[in-house]
Structures
1.
Amino acid sequence: MNTTELLARHRLPGPHADGDERMRRESLVSRLLGRPEFASLAGAILVFIVFALSAGDSGMFNLDGVINWMQVAAYLGIIAVGACLLMIGGEFDLSIGSMIGFAGMMVAIPTVYFGWPFWLAVLFAFAGSMLLGWLNGYLVMKTRLPSFIVTLAFLFILRGLTLALSILFANRTIVSGVGERAAHDWLGQLLFTGNVGTGLFSWLARHGWIATVNGGAPLVAGIPKVILWWALVALAASFVLARTRLGNWIFAVGGDAVAAKNMGVPVRQVKIGLFVFTAFCACLFAVLQVADFGSAAADRGLQKEFEAIIAAVIGGALLTGGYGSVIGACFGALIFGVVQIGITYTNLSSDWFRVFLGVMLLVAVLFNNFVRRRITEAK
Amino acid sequence: MSTQHDKDEAILELDQVSKYFGPVIALQNVSLRLRRGEVHCLLGDNGAGKSTLIKLLAGVHQPSAGQYLVDGKPVRFQSPKEALDLGVATVYQDLALVPLLSVARNFFLGREPVRKLFGLRVMDMDYAARTAKEKLAEMGIMVRDAHHPIGTMSGGEKQCLAIARAIHFGARVLILDEPTAALGVKQSFNVLQLIHRARERGISVIFITHNVHHAYPIGDTFTLLNRGKSLGSFAKDRITKEEVLDMMAGGAEMQTLMSQLEGIQV
């Protein structure tokens, strides 16, 4: 028996010109369901509808209201982007909130008590935070412990250090007086304090197209820089994730680290890099907040790690890694902003905010689970 | 197709190779010659030393004694990457595929094609999808959409993807670790056909299996391992399927087992 001939006779059908008979045309809904952002987009639309109906006439959707909740969304959005990339890479960072507090102090104490220029303190805070992020990542990779445990330790270490060191250096837990220095510093002025588009807004106000206060100045002076930072960080992260080699590696190390390693992906460097990026996002949050509030406080950023992770999960990121979307996480953050601020425009007690969050998280996780099964188990 | 002269030349050869792990003798004086463009089946029951042999060939382990030659030159691989650089690629059972990633992204995992976009280096997704689809089509596998996650593919298709990927990235020698072990009848047949296609393209294949029914139709040469020792290599025209089966399981022992089973009345 000649096997070569036998196999040749049983050759599989070659490429079809008319497509694959096993390929079914998917409906639009079905295709949308396959996108990680879908749930958060639908959630955001739903939330907008609910608040438009219940608080539409309260001023929530006036320019000042919009800026108000956009600002809340932007702060959260910045750390949600970091948390989202890290989760896609298969890891968690529970120390984001504590890092915000710690980084804030790294800016405020040197500025106010050591007389450093603001820009130097900012660079110091970024360097310090990213070094701590690296340490987080290094320990996770070195010990092979779950990142959940390692970063939980840092949640406490950093929060404790923030309190202890601010007492040690400043003898208080709220360090104020940074605002003035930040506003007069070239770097602070350029990147962190104030608004963008003030000229445009005053021009609009002069023509009576936007609301003004009694002097004729616009009620909303401009777009807070935090919103632009959010857009910048989100766009850059989306781009990297979707279009670059690094993005492919991030998905791969989260999806199956062993397979990625076998194919030559530098798993360790990618994961540690993601921890550093998350710390960068936390520090950016802190610097913007310190510049805006004019002070740092030891309890800043409390529970922000959970909010960031929730936003990422609502945005479609899987807890097991390997799947998710930066744009989704941004919609998650937007839902947060709208609900947190919107609830104050309604008659509801703001205690309901947390209830809403929990329910939203639960629904999102259930939905993501469904999506994952659809992707990986369809035959 | 390679000439007769090339055919006689071994692309890869193990000469009296032994491997010890402390007091354990995993392999003893095993010799194996892989000729260019042949499918060489490595058969053995569980515990025969197949896995150790694969790891030696792949560059994960180094032999404790004996010589490993590629293209007639002695080599001593320090890592699997060195073996890969010489075109010796191993497709393990876990396949090194990420289920949530698309076909295209998996195909180029770790070796992503890049192009310039506004001065930035981005992944060339169109090229990746097109190439992955083409290469798989050459192997007789139709991909519905190269941007779909491979989680939706069958075990056989995944196996084929891993093999096609190794071939695309310049494998001259393919070492396949039990590629049909977890597959159904039809999928196994597809994989066997893929091995046949690889041979047609001049790629030499080491096909590790304990399934004689898969090995015999496709193989040109059979090497049998038993308890760390080679029972010899046999060209197909010099051995029958029954003889292979007998040698693999230890004929007499198998006969006894079979008769015991037949004696059972249900």
2.
Amino acid sequence: MLKNIIQKELKELWREDRVKWLCIIVAALLVTSVITSYRYNKKLKDDHTIAMRADREVWDNQRPKNPHAAAHFGFYLFKPVYPLSIFEPGVDRFTGATLFLEAHQRNNERFSNIADESDLGRFGFLSPAFILQFLLPLLIIVAGFNSISKEKESGNLSLLLSQGISAKKMFYGKWLSLFLLVAAIIIPLFIISLAVLAVQNAPIYNYAASGCMMLLYLLFYAVIINVVVFISSKAKQSSHAFIYSILFWVICCLLAPKLVANISQTASPLLTNEEALNKVKELNKGKENVHDKSSGAFKHLVDSLLKKYKVDSINQLPVNVSGVRLDAGEQTDTWNNEQVNKEQMKRLNIQQNIITLGSLFSPLIPSQQISMALANTDVYSHHRFCDSGERYRRKFVNIMNKYIAYESGLQESYTVFKTGDKLWKRVPVFSYQPPGFSALASYGFSFLALLLWLVISFFVVNKSIHQFKAV
Amino acid sequence: MKPIFSFELKKCLKSKTVWLTFILWCIIIAFATQQRIHTINVLRTANDTSAQYELRKAAAYFTLLDSAETGKKQFPKYDSDPRNPVYFNNSLPRFAIFPPGPLNSFATGQSDVMPSLYVISRRYDYRVQKEEAVNGLQLLYGKIDIAFVIVFLLPLVIIAFNYNILSSEKENGTLKLLMVQGSSLQQIVWAKMLVSLLFTLLLLLLPVACIVVEGIDPSRIISALGIYLLVALLYSLFWHLLCAFINRKIKSSAYNATILLSSWLFIVLVLPTLINTITEIVHPVPSRTKFITDYRHTLNEMERDSNSVILDKYFFDHPELVKQDTTGNTRNRANEFYKAIHINQDKTQTALQPLYVAHDNALRSANDFANKAGLISPAICMQQSLLLLAGQSSRQYVYFIERIDEWRKPYLKFIFNKLLLDKDVSKTEALQLKPFSYPPYDYSGKITLNIFLLLLFNIFLIIIVAVSLKGTIIT
């Protein structure tokens, strides 16, 4: 029986011009978007790989110079481009693609793609995620807005019920036919994604994540179908059902995300560079700067060194004092940066939590968050990369400073002392691996919100079925 | 036509949906304006603080320069002598603040990703200056501002009120009645549209009312407001005409709604993303990655044998580490060192110049291509006009940065020449170096083009609607 209903529904859907055409358009856009997205990603990935190698080459081939000068010359890191970002580009266009590492300070990422784009950039780019998140819900609306209301309008509903066909079966027949419609688009896309990943030789995580992404979207669409069917069963006319469904879509996909973006920014603005600088000043207040040779801190450092090596004057020391001083200064700087970063992450977390709260108004927000996390293109993935850059910064600055202090064998001020490429090569090559599925840990509330949407929407739809039993 | 008009007007005034829409519109517009003005104020306060700091520094410097020139105070060390060009450069950095346009409170534009304050000095290469921390997700979602509400939501409101102007009459059976009474289809459509347009005008005036409530004097931006109303009215007229166009065949209301919303989706959402994607293939923005690679390469190449560019930068921050003459004659030794640095910086900047120019040109032409291609969508015409009026379009930022480049050249040259010729800075000369100001970006041509295109869309639709309504026969 259920099978018959589904068959009939699917046939009817396909007979509707608007559904057929929209399906064809969506499918065509999806194929186009996979191709263009693949192309963009490949170029970006190649660019970043070449740039990473080129920057390392520049570092290795520096002319002989002072190690501290080299630490100021620093490194540019380029954010890795992950295979799944073809399907879910996430926030990558909006965050800086490079990170400049230098002595003393932790920099923000630089050069986001969006800053270079034309005014059209904010309208968005064609990507599979855009289609899955914005257009497929619309397809569901166009296909399903009159699923129940048309049966009511044509009087079929009473006819069917009077013939003893249970309302539940009819509902689920319609529900499943809508679900099969989107599944018919999602599952081929999943197969395409596996092929694309295979072409790229992607790590095994991505295949699993791609599967999870498919399941996630199916859950999301289940929620949308529930809402659309519910509206259709409640509306007096099909055209009302259509308008209310579109209103739901506008709130879910356009208004709610923007609203939470606004509120989160006003409620917890990120530290500006100026504020960060002031915070460092505050942290340094009352503390002596070991960089300053006339300070007590510097004298204390020298005294402790003299004591440690049991000598009477600086000239007898087996270590270079200015190197030790740089090292000590760097430790203070690092600690300061750490405090500023902690404050920054606190503010960012508040922003993210406010945005996640938007899940209560829009099932898109939690789905999108999880989808981005799976593709390593969410905000937290970005910050994990920046954190690993910071760890690398400490490592290489430390190598430079330690060299001046313990290996230069000089007593002069470090500024006149030079060294060559052997030291440059001692710095390990930067590498970063994303954490895989554990990245999802930050999105517990999003999972919960999506499940809540699913459970509540099913519950509400079930209730609206009971309403028809009485007819 | 008149009786239909007055009937529709009365119906509109009594409609609950109209009032509900109006109230929701008020709430959204008030929220958008309040949020935008809050952001503007936060930014302005921050910029003002930085500017005040620099101005105080400059005032202190000039007092010092005065006392040096009149001989009131002696400066035994040339390092701390205000007449020393190096000292001048260090204590008198210049700043450029991005000047927003008259309707800044209407659109966020590029203001959330572009810096609005640049500090210019020989010490910094402002091309690779520090960037502010951002939350990418916020940028991805975008802000609710007036531009968003008008470009995205206003068409939806118009569609909701006009998708069934003829079809509802047919479905209610009142169409024949009207026709019998001597009204033509055209009269019905125009009369109904006029009522809806009046309502739209009211909606379009609300943002103006909101900024007045927020304390902005409208008389100072009256011409910009006029242009805004003109463009926005043309944009709403376009959507009205589209509704009439879809209604001309008098099919079912559900059919009309589906077609109209698909058009909305296509014009507002899909077409711009398609244009972006095509631009990315045909005329992509230049790669920043490549820019950085070239930049770094040049820096590495330009390193002096004796010392490195980057170390020089370090010495600027730590002048106490600069080696001084054993005889205590710091004047010559220290400045010799700075001379070397400035020559080197000059060489580096000259070497980098082609890179900057090439990057800027490629960026500008890519943006121009996208902006021009975007003109085929009325939604993009509307958005571009609003951004231009708000002073927040990407073109205005590119123009601003080019002006900074121009303005800082004589300033840098001044210090460079003084240093190389071993000359002191005098107050009269220092005062001749003008603070940053530039002729405002002329957007009249671009907006005229937008208005012209919107007019074309409208005229085209008016003709089609008029012709096809005349030919429609009610059966």
3.
Amino acid sequence: MLRYLTRRLLLLIPTFIGITLITFVVIRLAPGDPAAMKLQAAQGTISSDRAALEVIAQTRKLYGLDQPISVQYISWVKRVLTFDFGDSYKDHRPVLEKIAEALPITLLLNVITLFIIYVIAIPWGVFSALSPNSVLDRLSALILFILYSLPSFWIAILLIVYLGGGDHWNLFPIAGLMSDGAEKLPWHGQLLNVLWHLVLPVLCLTYGGFSFLARFSRATLLEVIQQDFVRTAYAKGLSRFRVMVHHAFRNALIPQLTLLGTLLPSLLGGSVIIEQIFSIPGMGRLGFEAVLSRDYPVVMAIATISALLTLVSLLLSDLLYLCVDPRIRFERKGK
Amino acid sequence: MNGYWGLIWKQFFKSRMNRCALIIVSALFFVALLAPWLTSYEPNQYDLDSILLTPSSQHWMGTDDQGRDVMARLIYGSRISLSVGFVAVGIYVLIGIFVGALAGYYGGWWDMVISRAIEVMLCFPTFFLILAVLAFLGPSIYNIMIVIGVTQWTGIARLVRGEFLKLREREFVQASEVMGAGDFWIMWKHLLPNALAPVLVSAMFGVADAILTETSLSFLGFGVPPQIPSWGSVLSQAQNYMDIAWWLALAPGLAIFVTITAYNIVGEGLRDAVDPHLK
């Protein structure tokens, strides 16, 4: 166990280097020089060409762009290791501050989404696995399949048209997190207002993952039911309920648990497209806007942070697997 | 039809749903191929006298804000979506098979390095990465194909690696080795044909995914340039006229939905046919 753990932790180092290297290379692929872009933005305030060149040189020096690329990479990695991602090119605020503002919003959105997904999907999957290929199971398979293939941005648009005002029902707000002036409400009023704003985006984020998870939990339970130990449990005279709950269901939960580990990164990354459509200032939108305005420090920070978080959660889900399933041992059994 | 693939096809054709999905998939091919013969309108033909017309006998799916025929734009858009889907998946299937074969067959250092590379790619938020690269390289259909191809190969690579690891210990491979077959011969003649079915299944789902990615990118304005009709960009345009022109949002969304569903059903049917145990 300890050997496995140290090996696993040591292997994180090359992966970390790979992650930072790719991020760095992708950013350097960009043809536009941020210094020149800054100049364009400030055009009109500078009178002559010479002054312009001087400004470019100054900006390049400020951001270390005048040094060789390997030096730039190493100094950047050094700063990443101390969680110093620098300042945004756009508004000169620390990148971490911007992320700290966006992260809780995405987290709120996705925790609610994930909670709903798990609460509906697992019972749904279990029920359809209890009587496989019945009429109800076929119907549910069809519904889940349709939900699975519906593009969420299309649904988002239709929901906005039909439930968010226009010529039709005006039930839900379609943009942002709070109505104007909602800050003056008492805390429960504010909470309600935020939840009301979250209905449509959460709906769009939920159904895809929900249909995936319901299908997944049906499949895993069906597979467990076919195992020998379930037959043994029946053979020794246990009731169907007891076999299902105590023997089959517990084993079917194992893959679900690890799935949760792999879902963690998307929890923090946010959905670019849904946050963009509903104007929610979360991580997805922050990243999208940073890409649009070539705000390299923000793009690099988001890519690195989410990649590192994914790395950690992959490790966690492996360890979780090890804890809940004693059959699995990662020690090498010879070759 | 006989043999392994014959059996798979037989199993696949047993289900009515699979047959329907396959018909839709092939119909879409013909739509893309025969686009100029299917509609009398040009996808970019402006007609400012007929802006935002509701669907009628002249314009089956109405017209958009510049008087362009929506159906013509969707028919031509299928060319973009399908070619992105197939070329992108083709690129990453090739990369995945190559990389996975190296890791699975040679093991050792190859496996170590390639497994790290796969882990690195898995860790990145893919859509964000694609978005960033496209923003820097400029939106074009070729860039989309390449970026999807270069970022999404990990699934196939892991699949092929696993199959190769499993297969290379089998007797028929050892027999071939004893008879003096080279590494390439063994991989090409013995291992790859046996690993191809799961790769095909994965590629089918991959096409659906790639089409979804392309439409999402076009929707965000990062896909194909605006003058080229694409399902995603038609839908994105629709956002501005939603209150008055419902058909603008409905038609492209349905096109995307039907296509993705058809590919997913074919993928699922193939998977069940290849590995009946999973059903």
4.
Amino acid sequence: MALRVQIDPTDPAPIWRQIEEQVRQLVGAGVVAPAAPLPSVRDLARALRVNPATVAKAYQRLCEQGVLEVRRGEGTFVAAHVPRQDEARRRELLAGAARRYVAAAAGVGASQEEAVTAVRAAWADGLAGERGEG
Amino acid sequence: MSGSQGEDGVGGWVAAFSGSTVRYRRRLAVDGVTLKVSRGQVYALLGRNGAGKSSLVRCLLGQQRLTAGRALLFGEDAWASRPRAMARVGVVPEESDLPPDLDADTLVAWCQRVYPRWDDARVRQRLRRTGVPPRTPVNRLSRGQRTQLALTLALGHGPELLILDDPTLGLDAVARREVWDTLIGELADRGTTVFLATHDLAGVAGVADRVGILVEGRLALDEEVDALRARLRRLVLPAGAPWQALAPMGILSCQEALGGVEVVVERFDDALLAAVGGGPLEVQALTLEETFVAVTTGQAGGGAP
């Protein structure tokens, strides 16, 4: 069972936090449905090539936040009723990502128009990719 | 790096070095190393060739005596307690010490007789999964198969501590991945404490909790991986930005980068960065490999003051 989580070794956040944030976003965005099963700690650790304790810590924190739940003997699942992702938090994440992109675009000397066009193209590519995999 | 006294062998330390020194004739191979491995930890000892990693590993295994200082396993002197301690330890040495003319089947059967807690079913399943042929003599196995066999045998008796000396040395990408896979599986199942020396920085980066970096026999760095991530940063500032103002963060290097200035600092401070103003173009943590290069080329040791 694949889970689209990626570790960025240059991200200052600890790996467990990267996993926690990404799973929360996948669940919050509905990419992983309520009550859907998650990979076991062992499988996700192997896929990401990280210490299982790191994955376990991320899962445990998400359980405490009500995003995931553990069913004894069955595994870890997305909670049936996931707390809605806070709208303010969502906007903050989007604005932060935009600021980083603008800085990178400015760094290569792109105009505003060029930068926006590149976002549109990347967005179209991304959505095509999602359908292709489905 | 702490050289604190009085806690050797007590509490949660599974393995420890205290003021450990190894001298070969005139050459000082290990110079006053003090470090501790706590229960459940994965401790990665890094260093360039000849930095002293293997000497430390051999001393911990009781195969070699320290010139000065102490090496402790489960709170006891590693040299004196070797026969007792080895029942609780799994070892994969740098060079295979498996009898070259025996096959996996024979070795497993032999280990089963030696170790009361031998988990035969698990060992055989692991060997099947990693494709180690049961009837091929060790000297006709590939290097990857030989390492998998050694690792699987080392785990067979459910050791409390696994000691690995550069387990992925000389292996191709697939075989390296299988070694880390096996290790991650073991950590998931049993949470075994691991002390390993390695050059495979990309492989060990996500697995280690704590790293030590040896530079010419001295422990130049001994720190939790999360703490390293929190303090070492590469910042890219716009060209002309007052990067000198970052000096309190400890500037390790500074060079012109595409469209700006790239500064590597060893004690990142959010507030200080905000005070410099201008806004960085990029703020990144250092990868383990970059950290290793920074430490071994001379600047980034010692950790926070």
